[in-house]
Design goal:
The chain has about 475 residues and is an alpha/beta fold. Among the domains are: about 40-190, Rossmann fold (3-Layer(aba) Sandwich); about 195-360, Rossmann fold (3-Layer(aba) Sandwich). The chain has helices at about 10-20, 30-35, 85-100, 120-135, 155-170, 195-205, 210-215, 235-250, 270-280, 340-345, 355, 360-375, 385-405, 410-420, 425-450, 455-475, and strands at about 40-50, 55-65, 70, 75, 105-110, 145, 225-230, 250-255, 260-265, 290, 305-310, 325-330, 350. The strands form 2 sheets. Strands 10-9-8-7-11-12-13 form a 7-stranded mixed beta sheet. Bound molecules: nicotinamide-adenine-dinucleotide. Nicotinamide-adenine-dinucleotide binds next to helix 8 and strand 8.
Length: about 475
Amino acid sequence: MLQTADEPSFRDSVDLMFSRAVRLMDLSPGLEQKIRVCNSTYTVRFGVRLRGKIETFTGYRSVHSEHMEPVKGGIRYALSVHQDEVEALAALMTYKCALVETPFGGSKGGLCVDPRQWEEHELELITRRFAYELIKRDLIHPAQNVPAPDMGTGEREMAWIADQYARMNTTDINAKACVTGKPPHAGGIQGRVEATGRGVQYALREFFRHPGDVALTGLTGGLSGKTVIVQGLGNVGYHAAKFLCDEDGCTITGIIERDGALTDEKGLDVDAVRDWIARNGGVKGFPGGTYIEDGAALLEGACDILIPAAMEGVINKSNADRIRASLIIEAANGPITFGGDEILRHKGKIIIPDMYANAGGVTVSYFEWVKNLSHIRFGRMQRRAEEARSRLLVEELEQLSADKGLGWTLSDDFKERFLTGSDELALVRSGLDDTMRTAYQSMREVWHGREDVEDLRTAAYIVAIDRVAKTYRSKGL
Ligand code: NAD
């Protein structure tokens, strides 16, 4: 956590944002408190024999709200993991799931480990042991608690967790649904790896569909031609930057990583930077851009869109006043502290909040969970039937044209696109796009529909808390 010493912790920062929203709502104090608090946090310390000695690791699984089950939330591997952070992230998961209407409560997990310090087979031992500790307490379970990847974890770790659960629950036919973000060959779904970055792209596309909202940032036009600075070229930051560059005509003018930053007004080659980081462990020395040692200073660089996609607390009371970007989209969880948020709001900066902006991951995780429970991939039954129906229409039109001597022809490009039924990836992207559009519109309705709501974050909290409250009320609470 990088916030200044006089700022609240991450957990308190989330609470303050929650309080700012509930002040504008009509909740009973009891229900407000029930939604606010974190239901439970389990701390585990376990030993693994590595390199000839026993290493002790500390891990957490926090359950914020069980108004819906299973609860859902990623597992983070980082040395900075601690209880306050895990609880803040679990709370954000509750609100995020409600905002994008995935039927889950909120949870989060973390393990104090630097994955770069361990070999793959060692990480597997550590992950399996952590998973064992959580599985035996039903803190990983298809019906109760379903983790996913987060910072420092990915498909590989999720596959180990799924296998560990299956070994411990040999007759559970729904075992694969115990965790999402698995590789496609191990029960995963197409499009999950890219999902959070893809969701950031869809969120920006939806934002730019509303010229009135764009005008509030001082920007004009669409996404094409916009300059972007991204912090963190990991799973989320890389995919967001790549899609915005390749598919929407944005220029990536800055990339901030752990060891410094790169800039190039003409645009950085995102794939080349990613490859460089994979081979060299950082951005330093990359030949295609200017290197800056104080990477965080580039958060203050001039650009149209700033995408913090690394970690929490990076925009805070110490630098918020100097942020020049016209629009900030929080791809990471909690990158702006409560204090930083107040400063930016008073300056009139528009912030697309984390609980919406990075919800693409949990949305596609939801699709994966449904796929695992239904035991069939999306599109398998209808794809060829869809193609056959389209072919019938094309053939009939061509026959009509021939019979009547009209000379109409359908272009090969049109026919190819029209005749292709939707496969799993196309359906996943369609479902994600629909989710991101619908959720933005629900926030926007509150943002512009109420005089007392000044920003998208407060609007997002109001939509989410209202939905959680309705679920609790319907249970008789
Ligand atoms: P990741 O581990 O794949 O990537 C994180 C990247 O940030 C790495 O490239 C790392 O080197 C870089 N980084 C770390 N500390 C940094 C620093 N101080 N300055 C600059 N760069 C730094 O993690 P990720 O999965 O991409 O997650 C990033 C953020 O997005 C986290 O806040 C996470 O909670 C959030 N998020 C992730 C997902 C997901 O599906 N993976 C979903 C929702 C939200």
